[in-house]
Amino acid sequence: MRPQRARRLVFALVLFVGASGAASAGKIVTTLGGIDADLKVAALAGLDLTQYAGREVSAAQARRLYERAPAQIAAALEPYGYYDANVTGELKETADGWNAVLDVKPGEPVVVDVLDLKLEGQARELKSVRQALRAFAPRQGQPMNHDAYERGKAAIQAALFADGFLDAKLLTKRVEVSRSTHKARIHLAWEPGPRYRIGRTDFEGSQFADNFLLRYLPWQEGDFYTQDLLLSLQQRLTEADYFAIVDVNPDIEQAADGVVPIKVTLAPAKRSIYTGGLFVGTDTGLGVRGGLERRWVNRKGHKFKSELILAQRLTSASALYQIPLPGPDNRSFNFGVNYRDEDTKTTRSKTTTVVANETRQWMGFTRTLGVNLQTGDFEIGDRKEVAFRGNSTMLYPQIVLTRKRADDPLFVRRGYSINLLARAAAQGVLSDTNFVQLRGDIKWIRALKPRQRLILRGTVGASWVDQFDKLPPDLRFFAGGDRSIRGYGYQTVGPDLVVDPTRRPVVIGGKHLLTASAEYEYYFKPKWGVATFVDAGDAFSGTSYSPKIGTGVGLRWRSPVGMVRFDLGVPLREPKDGVQIHLVIGPDL
């Protein structure tokens, strides 16, 4: 055959084969059966067929991928204890390409017959290490699972390191598998080595002297090293709000003779924070606020915060100076002054309050114990009919206990808050009357389903006072408003007094308070939801408790600046009072 003719034949053959391949190109679909969902995920992850899903393949490629599948599935199931998997099936041609139908019989799983975990000495007695040993899987009698085996092995090693056994070594790691008997033997043995103690602590990058930072240490030099202690220090320094970066680590390279130094790397946070902006609330009206916070005033870590609020029904100016005392109870001494000019439907008051207190962590609560001196003028009654007009000075010690728990402070799915208060004053000791007052507030939030929340809250308060007319408005109890009984205006529920028979009685406030609320939210989109609620309660004196009930619906928006709540509430027993609009912007707790 002449060379020129031969070249033509080869060229024609190539064109024919290429055309045939192109004509038979199509997409390949894999159908896998015979195994449960977990094993199916593992099998599909190990298949080349899966990598080609949705892609154009030729007939030859489809055949090669299908022929590799049985071995790939068998290999993918071995880490789960199935060493005798049998795979059958067929490659079906369809109008769009091919369907690889595979049926898997995993066979009898290999079961752990012997579990031999060896760890001697002091290490085995530590709680976290015991828990890791007990939690190791697979246990005797369970199917061999190599992923679980690796996780269990790593968990024991991590527990040893976390409790100070920094030189712990895994001397024996052996898994013996008998395919014929479907049995596996696991042999693991550790040499824990010495348990390290904490040495010196070095701070880098801080704006404070080391002797100030050393007060935050939750350990003494020479204590046994634990990772929990390092995490505790990291949390304390983070909560101090002085630093943008807090990194606490053992300096392993400098560890020697059973002692490991600790290295703390810090970077200062922004020293001054300026805040400001517009706000609106149905209780305060439209307003503007501005504030200045100095995270630290001096090298002793003192703090300063001030805020100014100018709103339609509220003017407020406050300043607070804090002296932190770092330690396990996170103490601080606080000195503040506040001026407040408030105008509501039922009261008008101008008061100045000077505060000195101590705050610390106590039995799971934040405890604030101190003394308040309050003086000012007030009117009680609506703007046209004043029931009381006067001024008062009250010096009263006060204790407040607060506790707050939340899985997510911006949108709580599981959490609660508790606030307990007690205060008292004695006439003649810079006070115009004797009084004792107790108050408790609780709020509970729980996600019923991914898109639903139930919110419950309640408030109870009681006062014992000699001359009630000497008590300023903010030491009396009122109900009604955004955070009380929706459907009623702010501070419009409570004991009243008839000043003008031709007008409605004037609400003057009460000695006691009892309110409760139940709210259900449903989120039809991640950021948007609707709500329905029932609020009830009363502010009262003596035993004349007559609960008012408000109910309604609302809209919820998870905005960039916090939760926005817009509610329409109506009083259930006084529908003639009409609909009340309630708008609140702020965190759940």
Give an overview of the whole structure.
The chain has helices at residues 3-23, 37-45, 48-51, 59-77, 127-135, 146-162, 210-213, 227-239, and strands at residues 26-33, 56-57, 86-93, 97-105, 111-119, 169-178, 183-191, 197-204, 243-250, 259-268, 272-281, 285-294, 303-311, 314-325, 331-343, 347-362, 365-381, 386-406, 414-425, 435-449, 452-465, 496-497, 506-507, 512-525, 528-540, 548-559, 562-571, 580-585. With 589 residues, it is α+β, with helices and mostly antiparallel strands. The protein folds into 4 domains: 23-105, Ubiquitin-like (UB roll), CATH 3.10.20; 111-191, Ubiquitin-like (UB roll) (Roll), CATH 3.10.20; 197-268, Ubiquitin-like (UB roll); 272-585, Porin (Beta Barrel), CATH 2.40.160. The model is unreliable at 1-23 (pLDDT under 50).
In short:
The chain is of the alpha+beta class and 589 residues long. 16% of the residues lie in helices and 49% in strands.
CATH topology of the largest domain: Porin
- Gross morphology is extended
Q: Total domains, how many?
A: 4
Count all strands and give the number.
Answer: 28
What's the quaternary structure here?
Answer: single chain
Question: Low-confidence segments, ≥5 residues, pLDDT <50?
Answer: 1-23
Mean pLDDT equals 88
By DSSP (H or I, 4+ residues per run), the number of helices equals: 8
CATH architecture name of the largest domain = Beta Barrel
Q: Would you state the CATH class of the largest domain?
A: Mainly Beta
Rg over alpha carbons: 36 Å
Termini, distance in Å? 93 Å
- Helix fraction, binned, reads 10-25%
Strands in their spatial order, largest beta sheet: 11-12-13-14-15-16-17-18-19-20-21-24-25-26-27-28
Give the helix/strand class.
Answer: alpha+beta
The CATH superfamily of the largest domain turns out to be membrane protein fhac: a member of the omp85/tpsb transporter family
Sheet with the most strands? Answer: 16 strands, antiparallel
